[in-house]
C-alpha cells in the first residue's frame, strides 16, 4: 500500500526525519511518500503558525493524496486532522493521535515529551481534545528549538533522557511519546537509556494507518468523517476545491 | 473606541447581521467596523471549511486591525481565536466564547442553539476546549441552513422558539446562546417567546471587548497571548508576515 | 449607571480597597457605591464565617440596591452570588467569578493567588463550582493575613511577585487573578513585576457588570436567576422579606 | 450516644418527619434530639432561602449541640455542612452527603429523587461539590411541593414510584436516594414498589454518624474540619460567637 | 507472525466467532490460534463471572502463549488485560480497548453496542477506566442473550441495525463498536444497513496487535507493563507460576 | 451481628492485622471472623496477583459467609467487591472504599498512603473507579514492602509520618487513609504524630458495615447488586457454584 506523509512545515530536514521514522514501522509492500510545505511556517512553533498551516495540510493532501491508501500527518499538532477526514475517504492518521493511542496499549500513565516549554500547553490541549487527558500523566519539554535539534541530534539525546527520567521519577509515567516532528527518528536514541518504552509518533501513525487499511472500513455517509459535498470554497487549488464540491467522488 | 468585527466567510449578509448585532451592545463612543472574507468558504459548515478560514481571519485582522482597540471574531466557531491573541496586542474576543462567558453570569445551565445538526458536535467540542463543558447543559440545532436562515428570518423564529422550549423542558437550561453568525440579530425575535434570556454571541463579544478595554490590561510578555517574534512565515500578506516577525511592534 | 459594591465583612478598609479597585474600571457616567457589613465576620477567613456572611450580603443588597443598575459582590468567595440573582433582577456579578471569566479571555492557564494557605482549597472549590476548574492551572497563596496586607501593602508586593513567578515557572500560568478583597487595588503593584497580566477581581466585576448592562437582557421567568415569589422568610429586614415575597416587583 | 438532628426550616412537621426517619437507623443506646428553625425560611425552596438558613444551622447546633456526640443536618441541601465541621469537634453528617455515600456501597449508578423540578440543579450541583457526580446517573423530581407532600403522604407515594421506575428504565439507576427533608420517612412506602433499594438520607446520616463515633477519630488540628480560633464574629448568639473564638475549647 | 486469541468463556461457538472475526483483519503471513476456557463461566454475563474468568485468561495465555508474537483477548470486557501485560512481554491487546482506540480514529463520538441491558454499565465503566469516557457518546444494548445471538445471527441483525439508527439519531454517534464476543463477525451484517462504520472489536485487536508488532517496542523495565519477578503465587499451573516468578525470562 | 473479614492473601499475619484493626471499630454485640487465602498470592503486589485473588475472595466468602450479616474485604484493592455484591445479599464493604467514603466526611482533600511506589497508580485508578478522584488530592507511598512492614512495624511509623507531613505540606490533604492490608492497625501509631486524622480502611469498613446493617435495606431485584441466577460456572466449589445458580436463595 501507499501512505502519504504530510509535513506542512517548510523545513525539508523535518520531512526527511519524518520519512525515516515512518520507514521503521512500514511493513513489506508499504511505500511511503513524504511531502513538504511550500509556503507557511518554517517550523510550527505557535498557535498562529498552526492556524496558517491548516490550509497547507489540505493542499498537500489534495495534490499528492489521490492514489494514497492512507494519509499520515507528519506534524505533531496533528494540524487539520479532522478536516482531512472530511475531505479524504482513505484513513487519515495524526502522528500525536497515533502515539497517544499506541501508548495507551503500553502503559496506564503516558508521558509526552516535546521541544520548547511554550509548546507544553498545546500538547495538553491536544490530549484533552482527543479525550485522552486522563491517560496523560505528564507533558514535559526539553528547552531545545527544532532547528537546534536537527543540527545537533546527539546533543538532544541527553536532554531527552534526563527529561524521561524526570517524568518517570516525578509522575510515574509508564511510556513516553516524543511529540515534535523534529524529534522524529530520535526515539531509538532516547530508548537506549530509558527504562520505559519511548514511542515515535510517526512510526505509530504508519503502523496505525496500516492497521486501519487492514480493517477495510467502509466510508461513512454521516458523522465526523463523512465526505463533504456542495461546499463552495475559493482561494484554494482546483484539486482541493473539487474535494469540497464532492470529496466522495475523488479518486482516493 | 474602535472595534473590528471579522467575518471570514464570503457572505456579506452574514457580515451585515453580525454588524447589526454588534451595534445592539455598542456604547456611545464605540465605532464598529465589519469586514468580510475575500476567499475561502461561503459559509463555514464543516471542519474542513473552518480549517481553511483560519488564515483568512488572520489576514483580515492584519489588514484592517491596525488601529482597532479590540477585535471581535464574528464567526461562531471562534476561528483562529488564540492565534489572533498571539498576533495582536489588543483584546481579541470570540463571539461564542463571549456568549458562553456572559451566559455563565446568567444561569448555571447553559443551552447552545445552532443551525444544522451537523454542527452540534463542533460546538460541544468548542465548549469543552474552553473548559466550559460543565456549564453547557445542552447543545441543540434547528435544521435550517444558514442561507435559508438569512432568506427567511421570520421562518427561523418559530424553529428557534420550539428548540428553546425543548431545551428548557428536557435539560432545564437557564439561558440560551444562539451560536451561528447567520443567527446574529435574531436573538430579539427568539427572546420574545422565551422564558429564559437568549444571548447573541456578537453582542456579548462587543460588550466583553468594551469591558476588556475598560480594564486596560498590559500586554503579556509570556504565555498564551504573548506576542510572537522572529517567526518566518511565507505565503501570507506582508502585513501578516510582519506580525509573525514581531507582533508587539505592530501599531495595534 | 449606578453599581452597588457589597462587602459583607465588617472591615471598612476592605470596602475602601474594593471601591478604589472598582473605580479603575468604571467608565465615564458610572457611579459606584460601596457598603460594609454591619455584623458578622471582621474578615471572612473560614467556611463558617462565609456561611454567616451570606445573610449580610442579601441584607446589604436589599437595603442599598433598590436603585442600582447592577450589584457587584466585593467579597472574594462571591458569597451568596446565586442567592442574589434570585432576589434581584439587575445583573449581579461576583468578583472572583468575573476575574475567572475575564482571565479566560487572556490566557488558557489561569493562576489564582490569595492570602493564607487555608484559603487555597476554598478557591479551588469555587473554581470547580463555576465549572472553570479545567482553566485554573494553579491556586497559590502568600502567607500574609488580610489585616497585615492592609497595614503593609508594600510588604505584600514582594510576596505576590514571588508567588506569581513561582506559578509561572511551575505551572505555566498565562494570567494571574488576585483573589481576596484585601488584595483589591494591589494588582497594579504586582503587575509592575509580572510577565503575565495580573487581574483584580473587583475591577473585572465592575467591567463585566457594565457589559451586562450594555446587553440589556430581559429578566428570566424560569431558571437559576428567575425571581422568587411567595417565599415566607422571617428574621430578616422588611426589605429583604419583601424580596422573598416577590423579587420581580421590587424597584430594582 | 446522643445525636442532634438540625432542621433549620421553620416547619415542625419536617422536623417530626426527620426525627421519625432518624429513629429507623438508631441503634439501642442512641438517643435522638431534633430541633427546628426559629426564624428563616418556612421550607428551603431556593438558593436564597438556603443562604439565609446557613446561620440558623450554626445557631441551632451551637444552642443544642453542646452535649451531642454527633450532629446530623436534617436539611437535604446539607446547609452549612463544612461550616459546622469547623465549629464542632464531634462528627457532623449531612443527610444528602450520607445518602450518597451509603448509596455508593449499594450500586454503581445512583438516582436522586426530590420534590419540585426547580430543585434538580441544586442537587446536581451538590453531588458535584461532593465529587460524586460520576456516581449520580440521574437527578429527577416529582412535581409536588413540600407542604403538599406532608399533607398527603400517600398521594406522594405513587408519584415517587413512577419516578423511580422512570429513572430505572431510562438511566439504569441501581439505587435511589430520596432527597428532601419533607420526604423523610417516605422511603419505606416507596420501597414497597421499587425494584432497587430506596434510601432515606436522614436514616443514612444517623447510621453514618454512629459509624463515625465508632471510629473515635481524633480532632484535626489542620485542614477542612480543624477547629477555628480567634475569629471575631458579631450579630450571632454568645454560644456561637464563643465557637468562633475557640471551637476546640467548646464542651462538645 | 502468530497471534493467540484467548476466549476464557467455555463456549466454543464464541471462540469460533472470535477466530472468524480475527481472520478478517489478519494480513498475509499472520497465523491466528484461538483457545477456549476449560472452566469458569459459560458466557460472562455478570461482574462475578468476569472475576472468575480472570485467572482462566492468565492460564490460557500461559499455556498457549509461549511462542506467540502477540496476544489478543477475545472477551469483550478485556478481562485481566493489564494483568496479562505484566506477565507477557509480547503485545497484549483487548478487543474492546482496540475497538475504542480504532474508533477514535474514525469519529469523535463513539457508540458502543452490546447484548443485554445489564451489560451497559460495565462497558461504560470500562470506557471510563481506559480514560475514553469523553469519546463514548452512547452505550446501548439489544436485549438478546449471547446464546440466542449465536443461534439466530440473522435475527440479531435487525435489532443491531435498529439500535445503531437509534444511537445515530439520539446521540449523534459517528462510529459504532460492537462489544460482545458473541457479536464477533456480525459487524459486516450490521454494516450493510448502517450509515456509519461498524467496528468489530476482535478485528480491531488483531489489526492493532499487528501494528504493535510492527513497532518492535522494547520491553519495559518499569511501569504498568513491566515484567514481574519473585512473586510467589500458588494454586496455578506451573507455567503460570513460573511467569509470576520471572515473566521476563519466559520464552514469549 | 457477625461480620466476615476476607483476606485473599496467603499471609496469616496480614489477616491478624486486619482482624485487630477491625476490632477497633466493632461495637458491643458484633463478632468478627477473619479468613485467609488458601492459594494464590502471598501478598498482592501487582495487577496480575490481584486478578488471581479475585476467585479466592469469592470462594472464601462462599465458604464462610453463609451466616454472616455483612462481609468486609480485608484486601486494600477491594478485590472482587462488586462481584461479591452480586453473589451475596448481605452488605459487602471494601476496606479502601470504606476508607474513602469515611474520609469524605472528615476533609475535602483526601490523601491515600500505601506501601511501595508501584502500587500508587493502582490506588489512583481505584479511587477513579469509585468516582472519588475529585476528592483524592494525593496518593503517596512509603518504600517499604509488606513483609518488612509486618516484621518491623515501628520502623514503618517514621516513614508513614514523614509521608503524611509531605502530603500535608505539598497537597494540603485534610485526612489520610492508610491503604494496604499490611498497614492495618498502624493507624494509631501514625496518628500520634499526625496533624490530620489518619484512617484505617478495615476499621472504616467494619464501622460502615455495621451502619449498612442498621439501615436494613431490602435486597435489590435489579441493578449492580442484584442477585444472580442461572449462571453456569464450573471449576469452583459447590458452594460458589450454587451462588451463581441462585444467589438470592443462599442462606446469607
Automatic annotation (TrEMBL), chains A, B, C, D, E, F:
GO terms for molecular function: amino-acid racemase activity. Belongs to the HyuE racemase family. This is Hydantoin racemase.
